[in-house]
Design brief:
The structure holds 2 protein chains of 2 kinds. Chain A is mainly α. Chain A has helices at residues 2-21, 23-46, 59-62, 69-76, 78-98, 100-111, 115-130, 133-143, 150-157, 169-197, 201-209, 214-239, 246-252, 258-261, 264-274, 278-306. In chain B, helix 4 (67-98) packs antiparallel against helix 11 and helix 4 packs across helix 13 (224-237). Classes of the chains: A mainly alpha, B mainly alpha. Chains A and B meet through helix 1, helix 2, helix 6, helix 7 and helix 8 of A and helix 1, helix 4, helix 5, helix 6 and helix 10 of B.
């Protein structure tokens, strides 16, 4: 009993001593944690307006509670299924096309033994990653412009009819994905290039002695060597399935292409920021956040099982 | 190494494919650059393919007359420089204590910040929160509201953790406190890492448009990307947009292409540093995300 008590006292003393010795350490954290509370956690409390008939004039406390009404309105509206479908499809096709390309690029670059040539190509393919989405989209939109855009000039030169790509819903996904591949594939290859570089060269030497050809080496050494990286990247990518770059979509879409281009976040932007239907837009956002969280959470669980690596 | 004939051929094919990929990534910029120096007529009739045709600086003259663009340019420098200072300060203030085992509650605080990466309140509550804080249409709002990127905190914490503890212990024996250790030892020693994370922040400050567009209603405060969205994206979307001044030497297209070039010059100048530091950062990030 007395032993127990003295133990408690000493641990209390220890904690107090820790605080006095490391006072500065804790003081440093104050602005840091305050920032998280004010800018990221306070909005989480603000999510409650999803259950309110929120109006700017009445404010948070003045707006009446409406239960799940906003969710019901959102899910009954024609936008719900459309934006959900578009989000998943855009994301899925981006994954299907956008995921393998950096891997293939890295594998090809890995075969290039001329150092200057390799680094020149890398410099060329990384560049679009650093250019803003607005400029990249600006270039794409200009190239696809109906009368004087480069693509239509070329189409006309071959004697075909010019196409107004940007108002045709059937072209939207292709345009969006192509643009993202151009912007990001080069830079995304870095991780695979690093993984390829860490494969033990002795494995290749041994394989050559055994008479292995290029394909044999690729299948038996290279691919198994980078498989863990590929798997982790894939799991993380699937976790972010709902995380479509809406800022880019907003640059490329217009009412004529909403049919395929309108995703959850662009709908939230229009309903909330532009339309002032804050409660409804927040409900849609909460739905989005919960599904996204579930995906990331499961992806991380799987990632932990598959390997030692995880997001946290 | 000795290559067989088929290996040599496949090697050549790979060199060609890789070269084409590089060319394809770069070509749009080349075309934009050449077109910006060409006459409007040469561009709209499709005579510009690789090099400028009917060389002229008319488009650039028009761009220089665009006052809103230059004001926005200055604003972007402001947001990028001061924004990055705010970012680095807050990030260091968090990353340094979190890299110390002697910090009680380290695990809980790490979870507290990491949680914000997986669950996010989203656009509307974030916006309304800034509204409540009277940070709409405020330069300070832009600087502070995007003060921390959690991923960069984790990255910097990892950098700090890689600094040998013996260094800190030696300073502690000499009576140095945490503030001294951080500012006189840790920050100078990790200059390269500071540069990497600083550039991560600076590039996202420079390139971001969405929240500036939402939050800043005053034309005088908007950064370059918001003006660019108006000048090169929206104007091109609306075909009837700017047909006013189309002369032979100048067209809507050459104006937009010149605007694009003018806007990306700082990024191109910084590109060698960016590439170096981003490559390094991407590697570290992939090892320890």
């Amino acid at each position: 009993m007395s032993l127990d008590k003295s133990y408690n006292v000493s641990s209390l003393v220890r904690i107090r001593k820790n605080f006095t010795v490391n006072k500065i350490l804790y003081l440093m954290l104050i602005p840091f944690i305050a920032w998280y509370l004010v800018f990221l956690y306070k909005p989480m409390y603000g999510l409650l307006i999803a259950f309110k008939d929120y109006s700017l004039w009445k404010g948070f406390s003045g707006s009446p509670w409406v239960g799940f009404e906003n969710f019901i309105t959102f899910m009954k509206s024609p936008y719900f299924l459309r934006s959900l479908k578009n989000t998943f499809l855009l994301s899925f096709y981006s994954l299907l096309i956008g995921f393998p390309i950096p891997i293939i690029l890295a594998l090809l670059l890995n075969e290039v033994n001329t150092k200057w040539y390799k680094s020149t190509i890398q410099t060329m393919t990384y560049l679009p990653h650093f250019i803003s989405a607005v400029v990249i989209a600006g270039i794409v939109v200009n190239f696809l412009a109906p009368s004087n855009g480069l693509i239509n000039i070329l189409i006309a030169k071959f004697g075909a009819e010019k196409i107004y790509f940007l108002i045709k819903p059937e072209y939207f996904r292709t345009i969006y994905i192509t643009m993202n591949v151009w912007k990001e594939a080069g830079f995304a290859a870095i991780i695979y290039i690093a993984a390829l570089g860490s494969i033990d060269p002795q494995l290749y030497e041994a394989a050559v002695i055994d008479g292995a050809g290029k394909l044999r080496k690729l299948i038996s050494i290279t691919l198994p060597g980078i498989a863990p990286t590929i798997i982790i990247m894939l799991i993380m990518r699937i976790g972010k399935l709902l995380d479509v770059g809406y800022e880019t979509v907003i640059l490329l879409y217009n009412p004529a292409t909403y049919e395929t281009a309108d995703i959850l976040n662009t709908y939230i932007y229009r309903a909330g920021i532009q339309g002032g239907e804050y409660g409804l837009a927040t409900a849609a956002g909460l739905f989005n956040a919960v599904v996204a969280f579930t995906l990331v959470f499961s992806a991380n669980k799987i990632s932990r099982k598959v390997s030692e690596t995880s997001l946290w | 190494m000795i290559y067989s004939k088929s290996e040599k051929i496949s090697q050549i094919v790979i060199y060609i494919i890789v070269g084409l990929v590089g060319a394809a990534a770069l070509y749009p910029f080349i075309y934009v650059l050449s077109s910006s120096f060409s006459s409007g007529d040469a561009v709209t009739t499709g005579r510009v393919i690789l090099f400028p045709k009917e060389f002229t600086l008319t488009a650039y003259k028009k761009v220089f007359e665009e006052k809103s663009l230059w004001l926005a340019y200055a604003n972007t420098f402001y947001y990028t420089i001061f924004g990055t200072i705010v970012n680095l300060s807050l990030t260091i203030l968090g990353a340094y204590p979190l890299s110390k085992k002697r910090l009680k509650g380290r695990g809980q605080i790490s979870f507290f910040i990491a949680f914000s990466m997986w669950f996010n309140a989203g656009m509307i509550p974030f916006y309304l929160n800034l509204r409540d804080l009277h940070l709409l249409n405020s330069r300070f709002g832009i600087l502070i509201a995007f003060g921390i990127t959690t991923f960069n905190v984790i990255l910097m914490r990892t950098f700090f953790q890689s600094i040998p503890e013996s260094l800190e212990e030696a300073a502690q024996i000499d009576g140095a406190g945490d503030w001294y250790i951080l500012t006189r030892i840790y920050i100078p020693i990790s200059k390269a890492s500071m540069a990497t994370i600083g550039l991560f922040y600076a590039v996202s400050r420079w390139n971001g448009y969405f929240w500036s567009m939402l939050l800043l209603t005053d034309e005088k405060k908007v950064p370059l990307q918001v003006i660019l969205k108006k000048l090169i994206v929206e104007m091109s979307m609306n075909e009837e947009g700017m047909d006013v001044v189309t002369a032979l030497s100048f067209s809507k297209e050459t104006f937009m292409y010149a605007t694009i070039i003018v806007s990306i010059i700082p990024v191109l100048i910084a590109y060698p540093y960016l590439q170096k530091h981003f490559t390094k950062g991407a590697m570290v990030g992939s090892v320890k995300g």
